[in-house]
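As a warm-up, study this chain.
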Amino acid sequence: MTVGSDEARAARTAPPGPPRRATFRLLKQLFTDRLALMGDNAETYGDVVRIAIGPKAMYLVNHPDLAKHVLADNAANYHKGIGLQEARRALGDGLLTSDGDTWKKQRRTIQPVFQPKRISRQAAVVASEVDGLVKRLAEHDGPVEILHEMTGLTLGVLGKTLLDAELGGYETLGHSFEAVQDQAMFEAVTLSMVPQWVPLKKQLHFRTARDDLRRIADELVEQRLADPVENGEDVLSRLIASGSEQGASRERMRDELITLLLAGHETTASTLGWAFHLIDEHPEVGERLHAEAVEVLGDRLPEHEDLRRLTFTVAVVEEVMRLYPPVWLLPRIAQADDEIGGYHVPAGSDVVVVPYTLHRHPGFWTEPERFDPGRFTAAERPPRYAYLPFGAGPRFCIGNSLGVMEAVFVLAMAARDLELRKVPGKVVEPEAMLSLRVRGGLPMTVHRRDRTRRAQAA
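Now compare it with the structure written out below.
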């Protein structure tokens, strides 16, 4: 590129974005409505937007080709960014927050646990856990907090499938992870300008939660050391073996374990919460799910091979993750100057790919706000990088196949035996933290389906 050429000048040009006088409005959105902050600016300014807030500038990327550039083609130039950096205080250098050689070693250690053959062998464990949940729900007479139930389920599944351990006794895990997310997002939106020693209620809760998570991780490691599994394939066994071989510290094992506990349950639980909300809003979808489950499963538990037969159920899960991707933000920091969409992005800039807005891009989705599982049963699908529920590139989510299997089994078995309805008057709103969750929980009433209706559906 010749200095002074039109191409060089274009590459040095900053992308469009809101004016400086909009700083107060942007700050307010950053605190109260982060989804609107991203969506409004993408709609107004296009596929590359520069959002200047105080001393920081954030570059919003909202096009499949440009997302591919950041997440895959030039991934080495982009390390983990806003939100995840702040989460490092609790998660340490786990797989979610680490970069470079540290991340590569961690990925190699854990990757075998998520091999497709091993995950398929866990189907019976997942189905058994889901069966227990459905039977418990069927006994409820009054409202049940469905997000609490989904969190308990996903933690139980994670413990048995990935750690070969029981997590049911650690009832504080969910609350501790919520406090970690709250603090990480608080530090991100305040640009880390509030000293950590300030005794705010949120920061005090975070310290308690961090200590609790470290205690639980240490206990799990100690239990496995006291009762080792010969040739164990689970994460705990592999972390301990890797630590012995590489001289990794106990702290490193703790970081990895805490990260796995968070990422392994939070995203699937959030997806299931949104699924039950959307199914309640669209009862015809619930009836079709019920009919498919009765036809495919009858009265038996699902098996891994059923994922190919439960086509509509899989499509529902995919459409739920389109509208409400559990990982709604993929934040990065540019390590060197780059060019994105013809615009100059300086080294050190925060660059964010936002699946929540990308999944609503009108150039790639027809009626993007409409809930339509049929999008994912049609022959023609959107471009690969227009749909990123599990990220993309080298850091593609390692647990995607287990998460999808778990969500499909839950929806199929719940739809076969139950109807879940939101408590009247409940207003459902998204809360954009490290994951995209339902704000304030999701109370629902449980109604059992009688066998006559199931037979008619079959």
